[in-house]
Amino acid sequence: MTTLPLEDGSLWYEVHGDGETTLVFVHGGWLNGRTWKPQVEHFADDYRVVTLDVRGHGNTGSTDADEYSIELFADDLETLLSHLENDEKPILCGLSLGSMILQEYLSRHPDRAAGVILGGAVRSMPPVDVPRGLEPFFSPMPALSTSLSMTGPQSTFRSLLYSIRATTGEQWLSVDPDVRAAAMEAVGEISRTEFRKVFEALFRYDPPELADVGTPTLVVHGDQEAPPVKRQGQVIASTVEDGRHLVLSESGHLVNQDRPRAFNDVSAKFVGSLAV
């Protein structure tokens, strides 16, 4: 286990392999770096593979910040990349919340990464446009706070899954019961306070325009993904200068775990096409 000191805590990360090119994987909300195990096993023989636990998650756990934001998470990613002292441009891969963090990073540094892979990519939560100025009237925070105080993170997360499935009719999170169970276990490791802080970061985020981004970007969704999320992924792929969008069958939001071999194959093909 390796930790990187921050001003208000420590960021936990792992490095596997010693290849010249670095791949950095950023997990989804209320999960942790373990969700990238299939990708670590696939890529570590040829690359330096880095996984981290975003603050509030996994082994990083809580920090002293009163509130979180996608911008703060992107600050942490910048700190980690600087600490890694990589001479080559890294390749970045983010899932869900991680895809938001990477979009923020791309908006700040349109050409600093060799390539970006966005799994289960989402630009905002909820993944629909809320008229500016009316966000407080649509806020789920009162109901979420009540649920957290009465039932805890796992039941609150389960309620979110039920509401999405009832709205979309899709499996959404995952088509694999074992993957869903592992996700629920990861959620159970998070405190009520940290769960709320992460949710608020997601809900408050105002996604950036990415038209100036020159970094090759691959967006990957599962066919059981919520339709509004897939539409947001299509927007990302069509907005950046060099974007492409793929949909993998028999998979949901956690597409890298539902179809690990297919996700690894399309990712490896994309990575192989980059000038690194």
TrEMBL record:
Highest taxon of source: Archaea
Alphabetical list of Gene3D superfamilies matching this protein: alpha/beta hydrolase
Acyltransferase keyword on record: yes
AB hydrolase-1 domain sequence ranges: 23-265
Keywords, sorted A to Z: Acyltransferase, Hydrolase, Transferase
A Pfam family assignment: Abhydrolase_6
Keyword Transferase: yes
GO cellular component terms given for this protein: membrane
GO molecular function list: acyltransferase activity; hydrolase activity
Protein name as annotated: Alpha/beta hydrolase
